[in-house]
Amino acid sequence: MNAACHQAGSREEHLAALKQAAGGADPGWYLMVGEPAVARMRLVPTQAERVLESDVAVLTEWRNRHVTSFLTEFEATPARTRDWLVQRVGPDRGRVLFMVESMDGRRIGYMGLAFIDWASGSGEADAVVRGVEGFPGVMSTGLRTLLLWAQCELGLVHLGVRVRSDNPALGFYRKLGLQERQREALRRTEAPGMVTWVADPELASAGVSLVHMDWPMTGRTGPHDSH
Q: How far is Cα 93 from Cα 129, in angstroms, rounded to an integer?
């Protein structure tokens, strides 16, 4: 770890402060993707007065395009997306979302961290979605950047991802070096306007399962931020 890493007692507060400050005319802080940088990752604002409607629009569009990749399937709307950012992502001290952008600010996709357990130092990559074609290698390099940042800046020592077995992203994660640890059978449940996939240990087998994958920690230092 390098000197930029935060002490354990301040890591949760550090993330909360970054989220609180996100937004405004000049984001000011990015995670830079690649050396030299080929893209950047900007914190998605979650404070009600700072949420960007342009973020809401692409998050909604891309979520609907990839709806069957998630454990909850529903039709996203701008209002629903905005509420998710403000009421779910913002207050959750174990979750953060980044927008992946080209160096000139074009939105490419998004990705985040969730289920952070500060006591055990664990967390998961979450909501990894490519929104536009092109920019080869940006999403994989971006995810490595995010995981290394989580290791160094947030002190997380156990990182991984959970992904549906029918999601093409499973191959993407394998290429990145994430290793399968276990699978859980998923049961499909329906309600008006919503399909939910729930882990069910009583299922002997299932057409769809939840794949738990671990990211082998390398001990490398994290990426530098840019101000």
A: 22
How far are the Cα atoms of 4, 20, 85, 91, 210 from residue 27, in angstroms, in the given order? Answer: 20, 12, 17, 20, 36
Burial class (CB in 10 A: 0-12, 13-18, 19+), 193: exposed
pTM, full prediction = 0.90
Q: How confident is the prediction along the chain (227 residues), in pLDDT tens digits per residue? A: 333 455 555 899 999 999 999 997 677 789 999 999 999 999 999 999 999 999 999 999 999 999 999 999 999 999 999 999 999 999 999 999 999 999 999 999 999 999 999 999 999 999 999 999 989 999 999 999 999 999 999 999 999 999 999 999 999 999 999 999 999 999 999 999 999 999 998 887 768 999 999 999 744 444 434 33
Query: Using CA atoms, how far apart are residues 175 and 67, in angstroms rounded to an integer?
Result: 23
Are 15 and 31 spatial neighbours (Cβ–Cβ below 8 Å)?
Answer: no
Q: How far apart are CA 156 and CA 214, in angstroms?
A: 13
Ordered structural domains, the chain, with CATH: 8-20+30-226 (3.40.630.30)
3-state secondary structure of 97: strand
